[in-house]
């Protein structure tokens, strides 16, 4: 399936940037999980653009839960969430209606949908759909929290500037989640913001790396071969527009290490098996080992820039120049981190339900 | 599903390192594709260890096709391939039967299977299973070749030494496929081999990066969101033991670029839309744009090393030291590249069959 | 997945009887298919209760298309449809809130969802969800019509009274589709209505058999073994509440025939291979043979009756008596037929897209 | 997927009637389940033809377990089973190589596979593949037995003669399982055999109805809508060649009842909720209610008969007459019942693993 993902717990997305709504159906989550609309709204706020480093299109993200919640708790049946598109200015996009925006899906969507695609604002390929993921993911995050499982993401790098490394995972997750701009070191955060503003001033954009950690996740979860934890998480993560790389633990850096350095030595600690280092990101042979799950995602620079770009008119099949107007983000990495957390949470809920049963996440189990 | 992957074209794996056989069932491939047993054997040879830079356990990989081939061609129904394990010396592993080998799945398999797992030689988590993938993938590669689609992988980096960059994709694919040790620059190849031998002499191991290119793949393939080409390929790739990172196009390097540099400008070339650069790896918005598909995989150093390692006895729950004996690879990256090609080919066949129908890969269509 | 079905073309359902809306997400349908809101409304009208033989709860079924339609045509991306519940009188159900209604899912939903289920009016297990299927199915029916494929269902039996047999399939499909109460013989229709009214007068209900025919469907579609046409269609059909039996062609009657009678002889007719009889319902070995696909569904009597019934209070775990009030159908078979048509159409679109590619149903292909 | 079924526990089939082997890969079954090769062999014997009422082609069904079993117990990883075809006389089929056998998949396989299909003996569409299901199913049956869940099937009807009804479900299951020819009433069994022999003498064949019961299955299992217990079981059951109808509980007979008769009244019995009758076959709203699961399958008469039949030559596209030689069954219903039990067991294991987790079926849990 295309816009659906997951087995025991699954999510289905719908919507277009300039259509009437975007939304998600979250199915299979255990019953009895409290649905905190304030938390959903707060998560949507993290994704919503704000200030000089974001687009000026600001949606209020007034979500509506259409099903699956009764007396403030999940019922166990599908939770449908709809988020109307309110601040749509389609006129801004008319000029580019036949020009392929480089780095966007305009041209490939045209190849696939033969001209019937809703091209306005990227249509179904817009980052706007991630709002629906964030709303659904907020409920998944609450479900995990009920089991002592915490997910958090910091901006590991932006425009080539690197945040400090993760140290105390649980504290760093809490710290990242408390921040609007999720950089653990405040001075580095300021430097990054400055770079984003510089890029914006140049009509350009920047990218970065998001690093995510999951604390409290049980060991022994994941399936051999094709449903390794890495496989399933990367499948979901690469769906997020702009993500072009995913690595677990030390990832690409492992390629330059020797085995004696890359291997995480096991040891006993207070009666539990732990590893001294966590270069594997908490996963051996595709199965969780009880250490924090850690992974990073490469986020490419926002493709919408104000600099004039060479491109083609894909209806006339001729070369053209593109000068974007409208409202665009000079960076989306600070907005993307809550998307990563949300999708990660949904995938982890699925893994837990598959491994331990569909009631596992129910409070009190 | 765990050991199955794919929708229209799927593969199912089975086997253990020291069991009677490993194997694969390749289902849904179009009928009429020639099955060239010589090519299958040649591909298996590429995966088979050889010389000083590989383990001394050498299997002949005498494969047997149990079904799905009639008069030398695929029938369209499941192709089952069994590869007996012949050179099994289980005794070598008895000593480690209760010690978790760092970097291996021994401990996590134990957590998941509660002691019933076949722990000999890594059991089901052994790289040995990839032999079955290679046999099945050889048929998928033939099917793609019939459509003018070529897949090839070179060792982009090993032990921190980098091969030259890809230039003429089709020629480089052909060159890589003709090599036993798939490094495009012969001098660099020699330097890499030297590093592997050094690591071997130290009782240690090295990792690297594999870069894969696909030429001739049609545009407009891939599905929105969860079945983006990146999502589906990464799902498969992360199943391969030792792969801890996957990136498309320039991947993590995109995180340090500005949008104006990262965006691939479109232009007309001989009546076709192409991009001047290919930083996106041939994929925009999850859908192929007609440029070569390019991606890289981080391969961690082989976890089996001869250096003494700290670990735990996971039955007694106490600290221990591990000194591996037996036969182990100081590097597997040169053997892994054919595994990447094979799995990539199977996934691409699935994408094509989903997009254009189950007869698409049949010769003469 | 639970509330999702299909691979290339899939549908996801959500909603509860007394929640704010029911809805469906139809994903993967080819682009360019005209979306005729009048036809959707007409199909919903066929499902809507009317007159003495139906419940007095009448919803206007004002559907809203939230995504996937642009300029009146499908875009190829998910079509989300929401149908608000307007005429909700939850008070009617308060009395039965702890009593298991026999034949309903109250008790089993409680076992599965541990009391968190929305029990009002059957919640997610209500036939109300089929309105969403009908809306989505209307678009699928239009897609099929564009390829000359027609689906229709008549009430083969109701309360033990049987309609005439199908004779000219295409004409009978058209005739059934033109009827509100889909019985091909008008006198038999009147007799059935009388039986339904009698049952209603007795505070009781009746069931029946629906027979569905599909004309114009291409041969060679369906997959071996687990994705036989029968397997996939029955999977979908048994999801419809009240369906307790499914048979293809002559189905259970074949069990009393000899092979010489049951086998459909092949013969040439105007250069095409046809079968003289169609006892197999157009399917041999799970694959369509070009004859009309014919199947029947057993519809149990509506479980909501006004007669006092013995049951249990499943919270107190004690015996109880149940006297239903509210608004209930003495028969649903006349409303269910459009649900069968709708779901059948979605499944057939999926089969065609899997077999011939995702563009197959696009007009002009 | 085509030849794979199931999510947490899945089975993949391969093979052709006259190829080198048929086989199955059973994946995801819990670890620690004893694998009793004697029981597997005994189950295969039930499926194997014997005596005057079966084909004279008798395979020894020497199965080989290639993986997934260690120290006599399941490991939790894929169990591959191969059953060589030994008694292959392909010559017998050469005459029919271009004539479509009525009731068989010859013609439809040709439409789908364009002449590349292995047509010998029905190829992949042969009932021979069910031997592999029986071997895999035997392990699933053992797993269920470990949880006190028993599956059994009797020949409810053959050639229009009906067995007595099920009374004491557990005893009847045990009785059916102890019989070679699974008819509960010995006199009726003799009458049925006589009818089969008569049909054989006439060069003809007969069909029948199989009724299956499952005792001890937990309540609260099954998923709403598309993964109702009926949906998932029927999907699997309709894969079995020759099955053309499936009904749960009273099935088609419900269509003639009134609601007051069809509804199963709930009542308390020894502190448990039971139903007085079991017309719903243990399933309400797609979820098990704790009563025995009961369903019936219509088995069409064996299509291979010795009477001369009209057909077409589908290569020449002309009318023809077919006189089958070779070895054929005048009835397969007595052989099919163990296939139904086997596939049912696999599906139930999957449902339990999805509902209660992948360790649920492990002994001692």
Biggest interface, and residues per chain? Answer: A-B, 106 and 106 residues
CATH superfamily membership of chain A, which one? Chorismate synthase AroC
What fraction strand of chain A?
15-25%
Helix and strand succession of chain A?
EEEHEEEEHHEEHHEHEHEEEEEEEH
Using the alpha-carbon principal axes, give the shape of chain A. Answer: globular
Number of strands of chain A: 18
Strand order of the largest sheet of chain A: 1-2-3-7-4
Q: Give start-end ranges of low-pLDDT stretches of chain A.
A: none
Q: Please give the radius of gyration of chain A in angstroms.
A: 21 Å
CATH fold label of chain A: Chorismate synthase, AroC fold
Number of helices of chain A: 8
Query: What count of domains describes the coordinates of chain A?
Result: 1
Topology:
The structure is a homotetramer of 365-residue chains.
Chain A: E1 4-5, E2 10-15, E3 21-27, H1 37-47, E4 64-65, E5 69-70, E6 73-74, E7 79-84, H2 106-113, H3 130-145, E8 150-158, E9 161-162, H4 169-178, H5 186-201, E10 208-215, H6 229-237, E11 243-248, H7 259-262, E12 266-269, E13 272-275, E14 283-284, E15 287-288, E16 293-299, E17 309-313, E18 318-322, H8 333-356
Antiparallel strand pairs in A: 1-2, 2-3, 3-7, 4-7, 5-6, 8-9, 8-10, 10-16, 11-16, 12-13, 14-15, 17-18
């Amino acid at each position: 399936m295309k816009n659906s993902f997951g087995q025991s717990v699954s999510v289905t997305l719908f919507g277009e940037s300039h259509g009437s709504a975007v939304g998600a159906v979250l199915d299979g989550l255990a019953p009895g999980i409290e649905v905190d609309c304030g938390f959903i709204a707060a998560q949507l706020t993290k994704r919503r653009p704000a200030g000089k480093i974001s687009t000026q299109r600001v949606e209020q993200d007034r979500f509506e839960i259409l099903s699956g919640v009764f007396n403030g708790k999940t019922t166990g049946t599908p939770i449908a969430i709809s988020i109307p598109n309110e601040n749509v200015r389609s006129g801004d996009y008319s000029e580019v209606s036949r020009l392929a925006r480089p780095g966007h899906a305009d041209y490939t969507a045209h190849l696939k949908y033969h001209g019937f695609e809703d091209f306005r604002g990227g249509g179904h390929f817009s980052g706007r759909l991630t709002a629906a993921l964030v709303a659904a993911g907020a409920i998944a995050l609450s479900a995990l929290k009920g089991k002592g499982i915490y997910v958090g993401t910091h901006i590991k790098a932006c425009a080539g500037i690197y945040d400090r490394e993760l140290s105390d995972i649980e504290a760093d997750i809490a710290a990242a989640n408390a921040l609007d701009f999720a950089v653990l070191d405040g001075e580095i955060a300021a430097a990054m913001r400055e770079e984003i503003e510089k890029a914006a001033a140049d009509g350009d954009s920047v990218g970065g790396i998001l690093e995510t950690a999951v604390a409290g996740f049980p060991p022994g979860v994941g399936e051999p071969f094709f449903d390794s934890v890495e496989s399933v998480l990367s499948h979901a993560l690469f769906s997020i527009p702009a993500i072009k790389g995913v690595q677990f633990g030390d990832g690409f850096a492992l390629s330059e290490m020797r085995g004696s350095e890359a291997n995480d030595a096991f040891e006993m600690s207070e009666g539990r098996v732990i590893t001294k280092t966590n270069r594997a990101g908490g996963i051996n042979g595709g199965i969780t080992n009880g250490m924090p799950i850690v992974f990073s995602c490469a986020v490419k620079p926002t493709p919408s820039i104000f600099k004039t770009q060479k491109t083609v008119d894909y209806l006339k099949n001729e070369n053209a120049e593109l000068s974007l107007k409208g409202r665009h983000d000079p960076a989306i990495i600070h907005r993307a981190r809550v998307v990563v957390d949300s999708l990660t949470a949904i995938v982890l809920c699925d893994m837990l339900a598959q491994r331990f049963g569909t009631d596992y996440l129910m409070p009190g189990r």
